[in-house]
């Protein structure tokens, strides 16, 4: 099952969102980087797995071994078939250079409010520091506004101080203490 660049197959209205975004490289005002955002396609999966694996924490929990491919495929299918979830990729010259998952959650709190949860944000290591991650998050925030969310939330591991600083620079504020229970132990 493939997805076209403009095909957001759920109840989203991202057709009205820009899919082409221009990002500036730091200190190079004449050298612009063009990014296109779209829903991930199944053929993107090997690149997505590589992005997830390509950091110190991801390298400890993700695998590039084919033995896990079926699990990744199953998870991918579940996400793209969930009307409240979306995998977004950022592309440059038809190459995936960034990814993130966004889920839209309905709550009884906030008078039946809706919020967006951003997960799995990754930028290809040679593209970091060039504004790609910022444009990806801005795109996800626009999706959240279109979904009438009152809040965008995300978590990042405390072992990622650069990521924490990055999100804070975009206006995110650490307001809660996250508590998790590992069920695999």
Give your account of this protein's structure.
There is one protein chain. This protein is 29% helix and 28% strand. The chain is of the alpha+beta class and 185 residues long. It has one domain (14-169): Aminopeptidase, CATH 3.40.630.30. It has a six-stranded mixed beta sheet. Strand 3 and strand 4 form a beta hairpin. It starts with 19 loop residues before the first strand and ends in a 16-residue tail after the last helix. Mean pLDDT is 84; it is low at 1-16 and 22-30.
Topology:
Blueprint: E1 20-25, E2 28-39, H1 45-53, H2 58-61, H3 69-80, E3 85-92, E4 95-106, H4 109-112, E5 114-123, H5 132-146, E6 151-154, H6 161-169
Parallel strand pairs: 5-6
Antiparallel strand pairs: 1-2, 2-3, 3-4, 4-5
Summarize the structure.
It contains six helices and six strands.
Report the CATH C-level class: Alpha Beta
CATH topology tier name? Aminopeptidase
Strand order of the largest sheet: 1-2-3-4-5-6
**Runs with pLDDT <50, length 5+?**
1-16, 22-30
User: In the CATH hierarchy, what is the architecture at level 2?
Assistant: 3-Layer(aba) Sandwich
Characteristic key phrases:
alpha+beta; 6 helices; 29% helix; disordered N terminus; 185 residues; Aminopeptidase; 6-stranded mixed sheet
């Amino acid at each position: 099952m493939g997805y076209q660049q403009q095909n957001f197959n759920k109840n989203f209205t991202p057709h009205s969102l820009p899919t082409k975004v221009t990002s500036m490289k730091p200190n190079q005002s004449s050298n612009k980087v063009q990014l296109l955002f779209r829903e991930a396609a199944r053929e993107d999966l090997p690149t997505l797995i590589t992005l997830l694996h390509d950091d110190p924490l991801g390298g400890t929990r993700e695998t590039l071994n084919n033995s896990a491919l079926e699990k990744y495929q199953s998870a991918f299918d579940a996400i793209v078939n969930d009307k409240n979830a979306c995998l977004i990729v950022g592309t440059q010259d038809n190459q995936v250079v960034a990814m993130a998952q966004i889920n839209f959650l309905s709550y009884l709190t906030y008078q039946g409010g809706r919020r967006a949860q951003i997960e799995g944000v990754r930028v290809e290591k040679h593209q970091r520091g060039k504004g790609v991650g910022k444009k990806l998050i801005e795109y996800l925030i626009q999706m959240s506004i279109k979904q009438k969310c009152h809040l965008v939330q995300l978590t990042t591991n405390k072992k990622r101080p650069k990521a924490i600083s990055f999100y804070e620079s975009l206006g995110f504020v650490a307001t809660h203490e996250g508590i998790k229970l590992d069920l695999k132990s």
